[in-house]
Structure formats: structure tokens, C-alpha cells
């Protein structure tokens, strides 16, 4: 009597490289989400809601000081168009570095590579940035504002540029903090300086020409103007797209080289 060969069940099948890699990535991402603000998933919600709190604080300060939007949009849209790309850059570039430090003990397991910890935290922060963006849109609509840009392509590509720059600088930060762990604290001061000089609550293009020339060296400030041109194409912003792309791809290339020759060399 001939016995037919049966296909092995999914439980008996040996997991391949892709299955193992996806399992590692999902575990790292879930661990990232649970490690925020109290060690549960509600803490991750706090991070997603933070851009709304940030927007409310800035709008409140503008109303308290009697400031009006220098663009054709209202105050909330003006603040959101500046704050969202800056916050996306800051969170991604900072949290990728913190994620590497937090997950470093897991790299003693052979399935977990150091580069996996960087990719996992970066993926979580990208998703968080888009969730925060959608939530801000809902809040603006609820308060009677119109968050839709005049030129959607201009605004969306500017926001994507902020995410790309955050990834590139984040990978560079991982390379630096793998050698100098105290850099994590020093980077907080760097992000404060970048935030203050990026034109979140003012338009840099209306500054005196001598000051504006220096402010254009800040790629995050140029990204803010990039996004705001999508809401008001009449503002006299001078965005150097080639300069911004140079920062994005230059930082990403440098960061990957540092990951290859510095991060992997660390014990």
C-alpha cells in the first residue's frame, strides 16, 4: 500500500530568514511602543498626542502676545505647518539614537543585529509622525480651521523631507553615541537650538537679509519654509531644495558608513 507524502504543517515548517527577521522586527517595535511613559501601550498614545499639546501651547502663546499669522492661513494652521516637520525631524533623529541604546543588550542574541534596533525604532517613529499628522488634521477641522494646503504636493514632500532628514541624522547620532554615550544629553541642546532657529512661530524670510542668509544654513528651517509654501505660495521664501537633499542623502550615507565601521565594531 503506497503512502502519500504529506506537506509539513506550518507548525512543523522550519522558519526561514525572512520569518525570523520579521519576528525580530515586530518584537523590537512592540517593545519600543511599550517602553514609552510607564511601560504600556497607553504611554505610546501620549507621544502621539504630544503634537496636539505642543500646537495648543504655541497658539496660546501667540494669542497671549497678540501675534497674528503672517501667512494667509489662520494661527493654528500657521503654527502646525512649522511645528509638525520640526517635531518629526526631532523625534526621529533623537529616538533612533535612544532606541539603539535601549535595545543594545538584546544584540547579544544572535538573531538581533544592531542595525535591526535602528530600523525598528525608525519605523515606529515614522508611523508616529504620520499618526500625529492625521490627529492634528482632525483637531484643526474640529476647531474650524482648514488644514488642506493650497499645493498638497509641496506640503507633503516637505513633510517627507523632514522625515528623511530625521532618519539620516538619526543614523549619524547612533554612530556618535556608540562611542560617546553622553552625546544623548548633548543632542537635546542641539535640538533646542535647531527648533528656535527654524521659524516655527515666525517666518524667517521676513527677517533682515543678513540674518536670513545665516538662517538658510539650517536645513530644518528650509524644510519649514518648504512646507509653508504649500499653504501660501506668495511668501518670499527662498528654499534650496538641492541643499536639503544634500543634507538628507549626505547624512544618511555618513550614518550608514558609521554603522558599518564604528557601531558594528563596538562590543
Helix-strand layout with pairing:
Layout: H1 17-34, H2 41-64, H3 75-103, H4 114-142, H5 152-177, H6 183-196, H7 209-215, H8 219-229, H9 241-263
Helix pairs in contact: 1-4, 2-3, 2-4, 3-4, 3-5, 3-6, 3-8, 4-5, 5-8, 5-9, 8-9
Shape: globular
Helix and strand content put the structural class at: mainly alpha
Spell the H/E element sequence. HHHHHHHHH
Number of strands: 0
Taking the alpha carbons of the first and last residues, their distance comes to 59 Å
Uncertain segments: none
The percentage helix is: 55-70%
Strand percent estimate: under 5%
Q: How many domains is the backbone divided into?
A: 1
Number of helices: 9
In round numbers, the mean pLDDT is 84
What does this molecule look like?
The chain has 267 residues and is an all-alpha fold. Helix content is 68%, strand content 0%. It has one domain. It has helices at residues 17-34, 41-64, 75-103, 114-142, 152-177, 183-196, 209-215, 219-229, 241-263. The mean pLDDT is 84.
Amino acid at each position: 500500500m503506497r503512502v502519500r507524502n504529506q506537506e509539513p504543517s506550518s507548525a512543523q515548517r522550519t522558519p526561514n530568514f525572512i520569518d525570523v527577521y520579521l519576528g525580530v522586527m515586530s518584537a523590537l517595535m512592540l517593545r519600543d511602543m511599550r517602553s514609552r511613559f510607564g511601560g504600556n501601550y497607553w504611554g505610546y498614545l501620549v507621544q502621539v498626542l504630544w503634537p496636539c499639546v505642543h500646537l495648543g501651547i504655541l497658539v496660546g502663546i501667540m494669542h497671549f502676545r497678540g501675534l497674528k499669522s503672517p501667512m494667509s492661513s489662520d494661527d493654528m494652521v500657521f503654527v502646525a505647518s512649522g511645528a509638525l516637520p520640526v517635531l518629526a525631524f526631532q523625534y526621529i533623529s533623537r529616538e533612533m539614537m535612544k532606541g539603539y541604546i535601549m535595545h543594545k543588550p538584546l544584540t547579544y542574541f544572535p538573531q538581533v543585529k544592531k542595525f535591526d534596533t535602528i530600523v525598528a525604532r525608525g519605523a515606529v517613529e515614522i508611523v508616529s509622525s504620520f499618526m500625529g499628522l492625521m490627529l492634528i488634521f482632525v483637531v484643526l477641522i474640529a476647531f474650524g480651521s482648514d488644514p488642506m494646503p493650497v499645493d498638497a504636493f509641496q506640503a507633503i514632500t516637505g513633510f517627507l523631507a523632514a522625515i528623511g532628514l530625521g532618519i539620516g541624522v538619526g543614523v549619524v547620532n547612533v554612530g556618535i553615541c556608540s562611542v560617546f554615550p553622553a552625546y544623548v544629553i548633548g543632542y537635546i541642546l542641539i535640538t533646542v537650538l535647531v527648533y528656535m532657529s527654524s521659524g516655527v512661530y515666525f517666518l524667517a524670510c521676513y527677517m533682515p537679509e543678513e540674518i536670513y542668509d545665516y538662517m538658510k544654513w539650517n536645513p530644518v528651517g528650509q524644510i519649514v519654509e518648504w512646507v509653508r509654501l504649500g499653504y501660501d505660495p506668495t511668501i518670499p521664501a527662498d528654499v534650496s531644495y538641492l541643499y536639503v537633499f544634500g543634507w538628507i542623502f549626505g547624512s544618511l550615507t555618513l550614518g550608514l558608513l558609521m554603522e558599518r565601521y564604528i557601531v558594528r565594531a563596538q562590543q
